[in-house]
Amino acid sequence: MTGADYFVPFRTKLRAMRSEPFGADPAGARMQRILSSPNFADGVFQNPLGARTRPSGSTLEFAKIYFQKEQRLRRAPAGTVPVHATTLADLAAPPATGLRLTWMGHSSVLAEIDGRRVLFDPVWGERCSPFPFAGPKRLHPVPVPLATLGSVDVVVISHDHYDHLDLPTIRALAGTDTVFAVPLGVGAHLERWGVAPDRLRELDWNETAKVNGISLTATPARHFCGRGLRNNQHTLWASWAVSGPEHRIYHSGDTGYFPGFRDIGAEHGPFDATMIQIGAYSEYWPDIHMTPAEGMRAHLDLQGGRPHGVMMPIHWGTFNLAPHAWAEPAEWTKDAAEEAEQPAAFPRPGEPFEPAGTLPVETWWRAVSAPMAAPQWRTATPDAVPGGAPVARRDLDVAGER
Q1: Residue-averaged pLDDT of the chain
Q2: How many CB atoms within 10 Å of residue 29?
């Protein structure tokens, strides 16, 4: 160690030793943009509505629920998840209506819109973790190898959490000609992983980039960021409004419910299709992830308060990230859509569909789901029952169709 090395700040030394999966901290001109952002105050990015980003309640109580054997079994499929078998063949021809969506699992979606291909939050890795030996592991394989997916005009990243920004996937895409649209600060991670700066479109909320005739606008979300133990809130999180000459779509990223969905819809909607986060919710973190009921409410807000377009649930089925049963997000979303008279699509992973065509609505998850406890949305309240008698809580046997 030289004398100069001795005076290097300890935090700088730690940053230099940080392994690649943790990414990189913003610095230089990028950090100056962050400091001047209207969404950055008191040393951190701020949510559009106050949000608690750390779990609330008793840690011991949460641990008992999360690690209980019976609950662990319910949080995973009881059989093999039916991944769509002919994805590449189905994608070979362009969409007849000009818009086609293919859910690849979790929040990863390939959107073919007006002759362009947009890939949202691509995660092809086996674990959403900085470590290959630990962390949430895939509950189903990716529908197609990334190398066979074909060219992509733009990759859109919602935020830098491991289940949305995956090092192996970004490295693979860095060797292509695709452009990356990311929230402010996230570009530091991608540059460290081999993405050239001239292929980055790094946006603050309400900023727009145009790529090959497609407009991509980073819109507000209610969430947080971070890839390390110390969360400094120096990278932004976003939802995305994407429009072409004929179609408009919306991807929520991760977010809690907030009234700003109405503003996003008024500015950029209505949308032909929305991709809405409805999984990994919990009473322990109610501000940063939406329940299916909140997700449906968000979709309706985005559409001007009425049913319109198609809602596709995302952020469920692929990784075990919360205490709820594996199939609960799909069942609850189905009920919420029916109640709102809102068309919703429930594709198998890898199953392409066109929002203006026939929607995938089969309840395929029931064949591989363990029975799950009926939560509040399936339990009538005393006021809703003749005579005021409450309905007994019971298991919902979604596996009964097997």
Answers
A1: 88
A2: 8
